[in-house]
Design brief:
InterPro entries: Pyridox_Oxase_FMN-dep, Pyridox_Oxase_N, Split_barrel_FMN-bd. Pfam families: PNPOx_N (PF01243). About 30% of the residues lie in helices and about 30% in strands. The chain is α+β, with helices and mostly antiparallel strands.
Length: about 200
């Protein structure tokens, strides 16, 4: 097992200068353009009960750029576990990974988060007349764009590699097994499309 930085550097060497220069402590115009184009971000947090990585998605630009050092991320209705929010209360450090359909590069933003329930701010994120539940404000500490190698290797945007939903267990089937069979999986799956549409905001 590798246990020291020296052992790692013996395998990987030092990063190229351009890889170091890609990390900056603010969002420059190029990085801001990536934030505005992204309809999906993975929010990573850490707290006393463990770590969490949650997908957050909406129309491109749903993560608002307040200024080059501040982002605002609306929190929409979900499962009410609020794992990410619980973590932020105890450890404000967060990481965001912005993903853009059809684009190989991704953008990572690290910073510290605060949770706001200020009514005017919540209303400013309203969709279909429904405000955000809360808004996560992120003070940017580091921004870095990743090259496209991971997306190219995974062929993520290659439609020929897309799976049919039926090739995996349905959400209802998964829940039924988790509930020791005491769950109506067929009804859950049948009602899910309408339930999702009605609870997006």
């Amino acid at each position: 097992m590798l246990t020291t930085l020296e052992q790692l550097e013996a395998i990987y060497g030092l990063p190229l200068e351009r890889a170091v220069r890609k990390e900056i402590p603010f969002l420059n115009p190029d990085y801001q353009a990536m934030v505005r184009a992204s309809p999906l971000v993975i929010l990573s947090t850490s707290g006393p009960d463990g770590m969490d990585g949650s997908p957050r998605g909406d129309a491109p630009g749903f993560v608002r750029i307040i200024d080059e050092r501040t982002l605002a991320l609306p929190d929409r209705p979900g499962n009410n576990r609020i794992d990410s929010l619980r973590n932020i209360l105890s450890d404000p450090r967060v990481a965001l990974l912005f993903i853009i359909p059809g684009i190989g590069e991704t953008l990572r933003v690290n910073g510290r988060a605060r949770i706001s329930a200020e009514p005017a701010l919540l209303d400013s994120f309203a969709v279909n007349g429904k405000p955000a539940r809360t808004v996560i404000l992120v003070d940017v500490e580091a921004a870095y764009f990743h090259c496209s190698k991971a997306i190219v290797r995974s062929e993520l945007w290659n439609p020929e590699r897309y799976l049919e939903r039926s090739s995996l267990p349905s959400a209802g089937a998964i829940l039924k097994r988790l509930c020791d069979g005491q769950f109506d999986a067929d009804r859950y799956d049948r009602e899910m499309p309408e339930r999702v549409r009605n609870s997006l905001y």
